[in-house]
């Protein structure tokens, strides 16, 4: 019996999303993986040696017979990268939360595969839990991409561009802005104390799954405790940025609490 | 053999901190618990029926022979509540991150027992992981309170008022402000989508234990991606508060990334 040829997946780019997709697909062992980058990059070597992908510099020689082409480049380069892909039946995919489907061109086989997750290279990703948001030009393409996504995640959904962008914006609030607050906390106390804040942070997150965050709010702003807020602002007197953030976040909390059903 | 009398612990107040301390000490089964509130409150009944504390309304009849008096009232009432405690050897304790020790009066037996945690009544608290910050008027008192704290937590430390206040401020950033961002995210998307953000939030927290948060930062502000930030701000055009927060947090992230060793 002849061994069935593995489906080919092309990944364009060698950043964090490219890395984690390549790692994921190589763990599934159902695909042959090709990684391209438009210019030489030390990271490409990791794909070859650690994940056993075929790698190549330059987008001119991208194979034409792959099933899926994941374009994992910066938002502003998605459109120009897609032009290099000459395929008959392969599906062009971008993974961005904030880019329209039609940046992939006017072809029929285009789709969005947006993993609602944050990717640092050294992370382990729980793909089964990670929501994957799909959008596709037509039903056939949507079905193919959805079948692939369901091999990966238990939470696959469809969404319009506008809803995806909205979700991406919310993700910026809970991920990037939250992380910026952690950086600020680390600037207020030392590293050892930042570690001491971890159980508190974990508890805040645990609540989030069970209690509406408005109801879970605690602290001086929620209580309208002016005396404590004054002490905090005095501590921040040397840091105009954090002082501004403190005032604005406190005033946001007060509004959120007054406007409980907004 | 005569049964040894249990040490008595008095708790003043019936809010979330009072509740979780009473629940904790009643689980240790080493103490007899008395809960007082200055005015009638429906919550007092829960202490009596669910935690088997003795409860009483009014601070005039507080027993004088307890070992520890936990004053778990609002910051501004700590001082006035402490005046009602007439004890010879008992230790007066407050649990606030932002109140000086001497608000407990000029007696020798005063201490701070600050659990670095967020308390909602329906929560389960992991006390073993929760840091407890101690400050005390003298060594004997410090030893007694530390012995008690070590029955509860694996992370007991001493700190001056100024460092405690600084830690409390950092806690406001990572807990209250982070939670306010979750409320905002819930206002941007719907409740179902807020649930979809949970794996992302969990990943952000998981990173925090392993990677310096400056290095873990991702997103449009970190990349300087003006096009995406413009799209996000357009989505927020109907919400002046969130637009302001978006701009300020993004500018904070840009500064944090430029100033990597601050």
In short:
2 copies of one chain form a homodimer. Chain A has 262 residues and is of the alpha/beta class. Chain A has helices spanning 16-28, 42-51, 78-82, 139-150, 161-188, 191-196, 198-210, 213-216, 220-223, 226-235, 240-258; strands spanning 7-12, 31-37, 54-57, 68-71, 91-94, 110-115, 132-136, 156-158.
Quaternary structure type: homodimer
- Any idea what the radius of gyration of chain A is? 23 Å
Number of domains of chain A: 2
Helix content of chain A: 40-55%
- Give the CATH class of the largest domain in chain A: Alpha Beta
CATH H-level homologous superfamily name of the largest domain in chain A:
NAD(P)-binding Rossmann-like Domain
Form type of chain A? elongated
Q: How far apart are the first and last residues' alpha carbons of chain A, in Å?
A: 64 Å
At CATH level 3, the topology of the largest domain in chain A is: Rossmann fold
Mean pLDDT of chain A, to the nearest integer, reads: 93
Strand content of chain A: 5-15%
Notes on the protein architecture:
The structure is a homodimer of 262-residue chains. Chain A has 262 residues and is an alpha/beta fold. Chain A has two domains: 153 residues, Rossmann fold, CATH 3.40.50; 95 residues, ProC-like, C-terminal domain (N-(1-d-carboxylethyl)-l-norvaline Dehydrogenase, domain 2), CATH 1.10.1040.20. Chain A has eleven helices and eight strands. In chain A, strands 3-2-1-4-5-6-7-8 form an eight-stranded mixed beta sheet. The first copy, chain A, is elongated, with a radius of gyration of 23 Å. The termini of chain A are far apart. At the A-B interface, helix 5, helix 6, helix 7, helix 8 and helix 9 of A face helix 5, helix 6, helix 7, helix 8 and helix 9 of B.
């Amino acid at each position: 019996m002849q061994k069935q040829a593995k489906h080919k997946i092309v990944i364009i780019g060698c950043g964090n999303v490219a890395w984690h997709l390549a790692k994921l697909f190589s763990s599934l062992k159902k695909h042959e993986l090709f990684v391209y980058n438009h210019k030489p990059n030390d990271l490409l070597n990791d794909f070859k040696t650690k994940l056993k992908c075929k790698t190549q510099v330059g987008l001119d020689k991208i194979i034409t017979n792959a099933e899926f082409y994941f374009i994992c480049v910066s938002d502003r380069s998605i459109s120009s990268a897609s032009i290099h892909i000459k395929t008959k039946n392969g599906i062009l995919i971008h993974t961005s939360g904030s880019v329209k489907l039609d940046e992939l061109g006017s072809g029929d086989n285009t789709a969005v595969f947006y993993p609602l997750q944050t990717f640092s290279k050294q992370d382990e990703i729980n793909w089964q839990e990670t929501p994957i948001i799909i959008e596709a030009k037509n039903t056939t393409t949507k079905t193919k991409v959805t079948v692939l996504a369901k091999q990966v995640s238990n939470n696959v959904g469809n969404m319009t561009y506008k809803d995806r962008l909205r979700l991406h914006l919310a993700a910026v609030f809970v991920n990037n802005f939250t992380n910026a607050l952690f950086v600020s906390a680390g600037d207020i106390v030392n590293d050892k104390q930042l570690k001491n804040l971890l159980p508190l942070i974990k508890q805040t997150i645990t609540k989030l799954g069970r209690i509406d965050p408005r109801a879970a709010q605690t602290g001086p702003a929620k209580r309208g405790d002016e005396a404590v807020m004054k002490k905090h602002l005095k501590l921040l007197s040397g840091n105009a940025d954090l002082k501004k953030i403190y005032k604005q976040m406190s005033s946001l909390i007060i509004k959120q609490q007054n406007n409980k059903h907004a």
